[in-house]
Design brief:
Elements lengths: L24 E2 L3 E3 L8 E8 L6 H9 L4 E5 L1 H6 L1 H8 L5 E5 L13 E2 L2 E2 L4 H17 L7 E2 L6 E2 H9 L3 E2 L4 E2 L8 H9 L6 E5 L7 H14 L3 E3 L6 E3 L11
Parallel strand pairs: 3-4, 3-12, 3-13, 4-5, 8-10, 11-12
Antiparallel strand pairs: 1-9, 2-14, 6-7
Helix pairs in contact: 1-7, 6-7
Protein name: Chitooligosaccharide deacetylase
Organism: Aquamicrobium soli
Family: Belongs to the polysaccharide deacetylase family.
C-alpha cells in the first residue's frame, strides 16, 4: 500500500533493503544553531504524507504548547480539513510547510527510490513543488518557505531548481520513527537521544502505527530534560548539499 510512501528512511531500518544511490542523488542533513548547554534546543518536524492525523502526537504538542514544523502534502490536506484548521488556529505552535502535491521524490530523471517512482523530469519536479505550495495556500495557510520531498532523496539538479523557486530544502539530522515503521520503544529511544541543534523527522499521519506512541513519549522526555522546541523558520539553519545556501542572482 502507498501508506508505505512515508518511507523517508524506512529502508535503512529494514535489513537487506539498502538503496543503491547514484552519486548525484543525495539525502541532505539539516541542523539548527545550538542553544548551548544551559538551553539546548531542537526542531520537531513531522511529515503528513497522506492518510489521517495521529492525535497521540498532535495532542501532546497542543496540550504542552510545543512548537513544531509540519510538512503537508496536497493529498493529506484533502482528507484532514479539521486537523489542518486546528493547526492553522495556533500559528504560535505550528509552522506549515510543503511536502509536495502527490508525494513523489523530487528527482528530475526516471528512477525509483524504495519502489516509488520519482518525478522523472524538471517539469514534474516543478509541478510537485508548486502543487504542494499551492495546496497549502488554497487551504488557508501561509506561503511555504521550506520544501521536503518524498523519501528525502533529491537529485542535485532538483535541489538547485527548488532553491531557485524560492524554497529551502529541509533535510534532517535525526530520523525519529523510521518512516513511522519503528516500534514505539525504538522510536522513543531515538528521539529522546536528540542533541542540541538536531532537526528531528517523524510522521504525524499514521495513527495506527505503534511508532506514534513512542514519538509522543519522547517529546515529553525531552521537555523534562529542559530542551526548548523551536520551528525551522525561527532560528538559523544550515543544510548540506546547497539546500539552505543563498541562491545566486541570475
Amino acid at each position: 500500500m502507498r501508506l508505505l510512501c512515508c518511507l523517508l528512511v524506512a529502508a535503512t531500518v529494514q535489513a537487506g533493503t539498502a538503496f543503491a544511490r547514484p552519486a548525484d542523488i543525495v539525502e541532505p542533513t539539516l541542523h539548527i544553531a545550538a542553544g548551548g548547554a544551559a538551553a539546548p534546543r531542537v526542531v520537531l518536524t513531522f511529515d503528513a504524507c497522506m492518510g489521517d492525523v495521529d492525535r497521540r502526537i498532535l495532542s501532546v504538542l497542543v496540550e504542552n504548547r510545543i512548537p513544531a514544523t509540519i510538512f503537508v502534502t496536497s493529498r493529506w490536506l484533502k482528507r484532514n480539513h479539521a486537523a489542518f484548521a486546528e493547526m492553522l488556529a495556533q500559528p504560535d505552535l505550528f509552522e506549515i510547510e510543503n511536502h509536495g502535491a502527490k508525494h513523489i521524490p523530487a528527482i528530475d530523471r526516471p528512477m525509483k527510490v524504495y519502489g516509488i517512482a520519482a518525478a522523472g523530469s524538471a517539469a514534474a519536479v516543478d509541478a510537485e513543488v508548486e502543487g504542494g505550495a499551492g495546496a497549502v495556500r488554497d487551504a488557508g495557510g501561509d506561503n511555504p518557505r521550506w520544501f521536503r520531498g518524498s523519501t528525502a532523496r533529491y537529485s542535485r539538479s532538483a535541489i538547485e531548481r527548488i532553491r531557485r523557486m524560492g524554497f529551502r530544502v529541509a533535510g534532517y539530522s535525526l530520523n525519529g520513527d523510521g518512516g513511522s515503521l519503528l516500534g514505539s520503544k525504538v522510536a522513543e529511544k531515538r528521539i529522546a537521544s536528540a542533541r542540541d541543534g538536531d532537526v528531528v523527522i517523524a510522521h504525524i499521519n499514521q495513527p495506527r502505527h505503534s511508532a506514534g506512541e513512542g514519538v509522543a513519549r519522547a517529546i515529553m522526555e525531552l521537555k523534562a530534560r529542559g530542551f526548548a522546541f523551536v520551528r525551522l523558520s525561527d532560528v538559523p539553519a544550515n543544510g548540506s548539499d546547497g539546500t539552505t545556501t543563498p541562491v545566486p542572482s541570475s
